[in-house]
Design goal:
By secondary structure, this protein is α+β, with helices and mostly antiparallel strands. The longest helix is centred in the first third of the chain and has 20 residues. It is globular.
């Protein structure tokens, strides 16, 4: 039995290592575009996410609270120089378009674009892309999300 488990773990090791290397959109975008720009990426910690779960607007929505508990990270990318905003926005859209097998446009509303990455029917990454007040904003959620949660976010 020990031998069987050993061989099984050896067979699964490459798959586990591959999952560890998988990067979210914000990480990839920063790696490709941050040098020489005013881009800044902040990761919201699990402690801050627990504070987010206490927001009164979400508190009444049990589906949203459950989904927030399943979030792994939230990254917020912004640019500091409004002169770069249009070019950086275009680079973000180009990166998403170049990875159509991974990300697909989910919705566009009020000048915002939502992209999702799914595993089966489960949303595992949600990207909000917008230019607001002359600045680029990318909010990248990773975790396990439902379509109901995404709709809740778009109505806030």
């Amino acid at each position: 039995m020990k031998r069987y488990l050993f061989f099984l773990s050896i067979l699964l090791l490459p798959a586990l290592c591959g999952a560890q290397r998988e990067q979210d959109f914000a990480s990839t975008y920063m790696r490709l575009n941050a040098e020489g720009t005013g881009l800044d990426c902040r990761t919201v910690s699990p402690v801050m996410m627990s504070k987010m779960m206490r927001i009164e607007e979400i508190g009444s929505n049990s589906e949203a609270v459950r989904t927030l508990q399943n979030l792994k990270s939230v990254r917020v990318v912004t640019d500091a120089d409004s002169d770069d905003t249009d070019a950086l926005y275009d680079k973000a859209v180009s990166l998403l378009d170049a990875n159509k097998n991974r990300y697909r446009l989910y919705d566009e509303y009020e000048g915002k674009s939502l992209y999702v990455r799914k595993r089966g029917k489960v949303i595992v990454e949600l990207i909000l892309l917008t230019k607001n007040e002359g600045r680029l904003h990318i909010v990248n959620f990773t975790g396990t999300m439902t379509e109901a949660f995404v709709k809740t976010l778009t109505q806030m």
